[in-house]
Write a structure and sequence with these properties.
Layout: H1 3-11, H2 23-26, H3 37-47, E1 55-59, H4 65-74, E2 77-82, H5 85-97, E3 104-108, H6 111-117, E4 121-127, H7 136-144, E5 147-160, H8 171-180, E6 183-190, H9 193-217, H10 222-241, E7 243-252
Parallel strand pairs: 1-2, 1-4, 2-3, 4-5
Antiparallel strand pairs: 5-7, 6-7
Helix pairs in contact: 3-4, 9-10
Bound molecules: S-adenosylmethionine.
């Protein structure tokens, strides 16, 4: 079993790679899989001049919720890359539906490959992807290679509360990494607690409904789907109680 598969499963809160073929079905009612397109668009409009002229790369774009809405609301060119074929097909369909297929390009690829190939972007986005590209320092250095000098990076992640959650870097640890990697934190947007709880509930209801359908269809795999429901719930509890979900706008410091 490859590390890429393990991290793919983890990025979608699946504890077992055995769940990978079922994830598109379990998530078929959702478009947004983590990042808030609203917060990302707010940050771009507030800080980036002439955003409609930007060339944007959305890494691990999922079903294209961020890419398509950026193209629609800002009018910029966006390339979205994700390893899950079904998600990319959905993103293409959404771009067409919203009339922005000429601004959007979607590709199936492991982003560990993309970071060695893609270059000269004004903005790169990495939303709710965890450690697919390594730890935060490794991730930021890889993202910096993709953007032009003085370019922009948006990362959607979470600050662990100091001393409470050892799996997540605290804000102080993130800030030390920004210094080390020569990026400036321009603005951070925190998700509203009530909004997060509402969204988690709504999404969890959809996932539970789909998991129950799969249990009926594949009774021999019931424990696999039940454990997915549990890990989703545990992730929601952790996000609501032990972490601060944050969207970060970073700017590469020109030497
Ligand atoms: C939680 S979702 C976030 C999707 C999207 N950024 C959003 O916020 O809506 C994580 C995504 O990472 C993708 N992913 C995980 N590992 C990957 C890899 N090595 N290469 C490309 N995509 C990957 C998954 O397919 C999934 O779409």
């Amino acid at each position: 079993m490859s590390q890429v598969e393990e991290k793919l499963a983890k990025s979608l809160t699946a504890e077992s790679v055995e769940l990978i073929p079922f994830l598109p079905y379990l998530l078929c009612d959702l478009w947004e899989l983590g990042s808030s397109p609203t917060d990302i668009i707010y940050l771009i409009k507030k800080h980036i001049k002439k955003p409609e002229q930007m060339k944007v790369l959305d890494l691990a774009c999922g079903k294209g919720a961020v890419s398509v809405q950026l193209a629609k609301q800002i009018g910029c060119q966006v390339k979205g890359i994700d390893i899950t074929l079904e998600f990319i097909e959905f993103a293409r369909k959404k771009a067409k539906e919203l009339g922005v297929e000429c601004l959007c390009e979607f590709q199936v690829e492991d982003i560990n490959e993309s970071v060695n190939i893609e270059k000269n972007y004004d903005l790169v986005i990495l939303g709710s992807v965890g450690d697919v590209l390594g730890n935060p320092e490794e991730t930021i250095l890889k993202l910096k290679n993709i953007i032009n000098p003085g370019g922009w990076i948006i990362i959607d992640d979470a600050y662990g509360k100091d001393g409470v959650n050892i799996d997540y870097y605290s804000k102080n640890e993130w800030c030390a990494i920004f210094n080390k990697t020569n990026v400036k934190l321009v603005e951070e947007v925190f998700v509203n607690d009530d909004a997060l709880i509402d969204l988690n509930r709504e999404q969890q209801d959809f996932i539970v409904k789909r998991a129950k359908e799969l249990i009926e269809q594949y009774p021999e795999k019931a424990s696999l789907f039940e454990s997915y429901i549990q890990s989703q719930q545990a992730e929601c509890d952790e996000l609501e109680n032990h972490m601060t979900v944050v969207t970060l706008l970073l700017k590469a410091i020109e030497k």
